[in-house]
């Protein structure tokens, strides 16, 4: 199911952040969003999830309109979101966090099995409280909780930020597995090496707009496009 965004405008009070964003994410592809701090990347993901209402434009998943839906209805349509900072229920166990993630789909056992197969380390820690996990394990749990929705589109906001290399590798491998399973992944990422390794396409944001979308094929780390939009 393709996610198609056309002319989305949104902001906070009198301050407009998104200014007519056009964007598309295809099943079985990883589309990265890059841009300097403050250009609207995280705001865009929140708008897709209905956490921030769009003032104009359309958001469609497989032709079904999502804009204007209450935030709690959006996951039922096939979108899942892992925000920056994870936002787990720290005092609850791994199993309880996953159960909360699975409420929308009725905590289907097959879905839980697929999630724990993707992140086997979590299976070993089902009775452990989330706040006692390592940073990498917490990020795994945040992604796993979102996947309990069995989403068609997964939105990830800098999922490997601050993690050690071994954990980054595990999470990147999981994202590639989701791609192979046909999930459309939208990934906010600032590291050029990670984008070149994972992405099929890159959308470059500036001043609240997706200014340019490029296929990763043919891009290299020294391409001027990265300096133009990201500053590296």
Descriptive overview:
The protein is α/β, with parallel strands linked by helices. The chain has 2 domains: 1-78 and 152-158 and 169-232, 3-Layer(aba) Sandwich (Rossmann fold), CATH 3.40.50; 82-150, no CATH class. 31% of the residues lie in helices and 26% in strands. The protein has helices spanning 41-48, 94-101, 109-118, 120-123, 135-147, 165-180, 192-198, 224-229, and strands at residues 3-12, 15-25, 30-34, 56-61, 64-65, 79-82, 153-157, 184-188, 201-206, 209-215. A 6-stranded mixed beta sheet has the order 6-7-8-3-9-10, with helices on both faces. Helix 6 links the parallel strand 7 (153-157) and strand 8 (184-188). The radius of gyration is 17 Å and the shape is globular.
Count of domains: 2
Strand-pairing-aware structural class: alpha/beta
Rounded mean pLDDT is 93
- Spans of at least 5 consecutive residues whose pLDDT stays below 50 are none
Count of discrete alpha- or pi-helical segments spanning 4 or more residues: 8
Q: Nutshell version of this structure?
A:
With 232 residues, the chain is of the alpha/beta class.
Question: What's the structural blueprint in terms of helices and strands?
Answer:
Elements: E1 3-12, E2 15-25, E3 30-34, H1 41-48, E4 56-61, E5 64-65, E6 79-82, H2 94-101, H3 109-118, H4 120-123, H5 135-147, E7 153-157, H6 165-180, E8 184-188, H7 192-198, E9 201-206, E10 209-215, H8 224-229
Parallel strand pairs: 3-8, 3-9, 6-7, 7-8
Antiparallel strand pairs: 1-2, 1-4, 4-5, 9-10
Helix pairs in contact: 2-5
